[in-house]
Write a structure and sequence with these properties.
The chain is an alpha+beta fold and about 50 residues long. Helices cover about 30% and strands about 20% of the residues.
Length: about 50
């Protein structure tokens, strides 16, 4: 990964908690990029609790 290219840039990473996303986030942070990530959280469907 070209660290100079990413330095100071803002990057949005979807799926940052996954295997590949986690690696990408780590590399971007080491490159001094501004990293934002999206985390989808789904609650258990309460309708199924009867």
């Amino acid at each position: 990964m070209d660290q100079e290219f990413w330095r100071g840039k803002t990057v949005l990473v979807a799926g940052a908690t996954g295997f590949l996303g986690g690696w990408i986030v780590r590399q971007l942070i080491e490159s001094k990029a501004n990293v934002a990530w999206y985390l989808a959280y789904f609650e258990k469907d309460r309708r199924s609790e009867v």
